[in-house]
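Hi V.,

Quick status before I head out on leave. The structure for the redesign project is tokenized and pasted below; the design run finished overnight.
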């Protein structure tokens, strides 16, 4: 267990902060999750501590944190199921691309990496989680933006993969 993986693991208990109704505690958990998400990958790359477990643990911790928060807001009536589905559009795109790779028998060799649409989506997601924690309304077009970013992520995954394969030839 290295420092980057410990930082990723931190997001699991941070998600439990959403059990508290206190907006300040929730906001602090969101900010710490965002910082730990940025630091784990940065430290792993800088110290050459990139591990197979870390490449699985990091996105798993992210998904757990976001899904736990979303479910909390749905339970509290602050978020609808359709808006939550739009919120995770990028994740649907990654799954769709993974299915595409599996059908092409390239999933085992594919190395998922961070994409720009993913980074933008993460910042937007955390901003919305902060807004929901503070009890601020989120306009419907913002959730539509998640769908647009999800489609853009699918396109980015395809063309990034295509470029890597051409460079390898």
């Amino acid at each position: 267990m290295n420092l980057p993986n410990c930082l990723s693991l931190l997001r699991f208990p941070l998600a439990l902060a959403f059990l508290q109704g206190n907006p300040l505690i929730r906001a602090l958990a969101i900010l710490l999750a965002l910082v730990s998400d940025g630091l784990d990958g940065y430290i792993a790359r800088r110290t050459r501590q990139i591990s197979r477990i870390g490449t699985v643990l990091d996105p798993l911790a992210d998904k757990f944190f976001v899904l736990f928060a979303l479910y909390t807001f749905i339970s509290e009536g602050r978020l609808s199921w359709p808006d939550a589905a739009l919120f995770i559009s990028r994740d649907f795109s990654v799954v769709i691309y993974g299915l595409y790779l599996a059908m092409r028998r390239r999933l085992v060799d594919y190395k998922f990496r961070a994409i720009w649409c993913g980074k933008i989506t993460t910042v937007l997601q955390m901003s919305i989680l902060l807004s929901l924690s503070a009890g601020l309304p989120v306009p419907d077009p913002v959730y539509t933006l998640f769908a647009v970013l999800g489609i853009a992520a699918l396109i980015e995954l395809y063309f990034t993969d295509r470029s890597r394969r051409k460079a390898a030839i």
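Above is the designed sequence. The chain has a mean pLDDT of 92.

G. will cover questions while I'm gone.

Best,
W.
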